[in-house]
């Protein structure tokens, strides 16, 4: 095996040889348009595949209060929001339900939010005030982004502006919700810029004992010079949340707002520090690198009487070299990550602990090469290794070591017969290493979990006219050793539930999209996704994968009747699905639902007001359902009609 330091040295040596080659130079001024296709800013999408862009104007038009509401507006994104406020939510792409938080990679400016344990990415840590745009890669991206990029990647790009201003925003929402956001940006002479933002959010929540108290402070200092730029940033997040838990069907009928547990809560403090450089080496070669430190400490109580304390500490280093001449491009890099995880739970006076020291290293290369004036090919490979040293009170009291490695490949072709049309064909590999609490919770046989691997095949077409953009994509995602949780598995000692490698699975589907400018002041946007997800082998062959809707769709209309005014109305549809854990499809599917949302926004010079109403028809539904260890179906009731009003002022 090649250690990461040696691999990085080899990459730099290879690049040095390329630097001496006869590739002509080109301009180094690359506008920040699309980042996620190559892990560097590009003026156009050079790689095959589909990347959805949500820009700042769309964010403002929706009037969304938090990231989850915004991403739910994309029809091909399946959302699981347990409490309706984004505090415990996951985003899924390509047919992942309960495991979406481990199979869809969430990033902020290329920094991973996914955890090494089963806790989903903390989406509430992202203030929409800081977001410039969102890039959504549909389909596997294991070569470029590595572990957990199975169904796709959501990369949130934050604001970096040269303007000097102050932005204030106050929001009031249903259930005694209050939100205050402030941002200060200043551009100094000589290339120095500073951005400081803060967010305070409080809410009683839709459910009883569902209070949320969130503080989010972010600071970024950047410096631009002739041959590149530097930045350093720090973020502090404090979240206190009460957890009402899941309800049975009878409890929902009795009162859908009641709490199952009177004492459950989790308080989390997170600190993130990050620094990076973008250095132009020659007119056509650049070095991009970031180093990140993230520490998260949590304490709380679960299941009505189990106190716990949890600590996560991550240090990551992500250097890469970018070489480009016109449409020829090479990306070479390594991702190095060190994680320390600790969990202590108190079971009636008995303290159980889990610790894991994890090292993940990988090296990758991606080439985009023009075949002729209308076609280009993309090829890439990544090799990754993981080392886990685990000590667990119940399963590995003497300690255990779990090591593994994977190599994945990517190949694709893009063909543009004219300026309006682009066709693409792509095959991409993916992988997911087992997480800490999956390795320690596998039942009485203590079987070592295998790494989940997959292959994604995609065929698509994009067409762009004067006022219309159309897209269509067929895809197939086959997985081996998919990792899932079976709540009915007997693990001994009177406990149920275990993580297993499932039998082979496949997701097949089609994604359709249309963006249509009907008039100067009227636009329409729609996305639809059909997903046929099922087991292709084993005891559940032919059964649908739990908690995956076959149909997802979204229709949004934006109307600007006069200058300063905008009206937004959307319909979101999610088809029927089986409860999480119902692998045999024996408990009956949960019916589909359609939710309507609307927003009215008025802007006048430096101030703006936005009024948004969610669930206009007061639909009663549950976005998440799951089987309990005793086979009883449980529900997380979603909020009924609710309102948001936001006032903002800039000066």
Outline the structure in words:
- The chain is 7% helix and 58% strand.
- The chain is mainly β.
- The protein has a single domain, classed as TonB-dependent receptor, beta-barrel domain (Maltoporin, Chain A, Beta Barrel).
- The radius of gyration is 24 Å and the shape is globular.
- Mean pLDDT is 90; it is low at 1-32.
Brief descriptors of the model:
651 residues, mainly beta, Maltoporin, Chain A, 23-stranded antiparallel β-sheet, 7 helices, 7% helix, disordered N terminus
List the helices and strands and how they pair.
Blueprint (H helix, E strand, L loop, with lengths): L3 H16 L30 E5 L1 H7 L4 H6 L5 E4 L7 E4 L7 H4 E5 L2 E2 L18 E8 L3 H4 L6 E7 L6 E9 L3 E11 L4 E12 L8 E14 L2 E15 L4 E2 H6 L10 E18 L2 E18 L3 E12 L2 E6 L2 E20 L2 E21 L4 E18 L3 E23 L2 E12 L3 H4 L12 E13 L3 E13 L2 E10 L2 E7 L3 E15 L2 E14 L15 E9 L5 E10 L18 E12 L2 E8 L7 E6 L5 E5 L4 E9 L1
Parallel strand pairs: 4-7
Antiparallel strand pairs: 1-6, 2-3, 4-5, 6-7, 8-9, 8-35, 9-10, 10-11, 11-12, 12-14, 13-34, 14-15, 15-16, 15-17, 16-18, 17-18, 18-19, 19-20, 20-21, 21-22, 22-23, 23-24, 24-27, 25-26, 27-28, 28-29, 29-30, 30-31, 31-32, 32-35, 33-34
Kindly name the structural category. Answer: mainly beta
What percent of the residues sit in helical stretches (DSSP H or I)?
under 10%
Oligomer: single chain
Distance between the termini: 56 Å
**Which blocks of ≥5 consecutive residues have pLDDT under 50?**
1-32
* Name of the CATH superfamily: TonB-dependent receptor, beta-barrel domain
Number of strands: 35
Strand content: over 45%
Highest-level CATH class: Mainly Beta
Rg from Cα: 24 Å
Give the CA-based shape: globular
CATH-derived topology = Maltoporin, Chain A
- CATH second-level architecture: Beta Barrel
Count of helical stretches: 7
What's the average pLDDT? 90
Largest sheet: 23 strands, antiparallel
- Total individual domains: 1
